[in-house]
Amino acid sequence: MSLEYPQDFRYLDSHEYVRLDGEIATIGITAFAIEQLGDIVFLELPDIGDVITKGDTFGSIESVKAVEDLNSPVTGTVVERNQPLIDDPEQVTEDPYGEGWFLKVRINDPDEVNEDTLTADEYSDQVLGV
Fold it and tell me: Which residues belong to any copy of the Lipoyl-binding domain (predicted)?
């Protein structure tokens, strides 16, 4: 099995990703996590205006196999959430790095994105057990 991980993203060892565009961070989960979870049946995300904190849980994703917490790679205020995914969570499997994002967050500290996160190669090595 060969999974691709976008090089311009940063990753948590708990399988969330973050992509920074100015002061807006886009957060989602990796294709590896989706493959491990199987059929996604429910997604719980914070509301617009909520503050999420790096290292804390901001929601959960549920599959037919398990319920997993979602961990925040950054601290900031939710400015957008992917409502179509909440309405139909299985869509995340189709395009996790594009249309399958979870949140857009206005971050407090852009440097935080690179702290305690993995590059695509580091993440790939981790999930492959290298």
Answer: 24-106
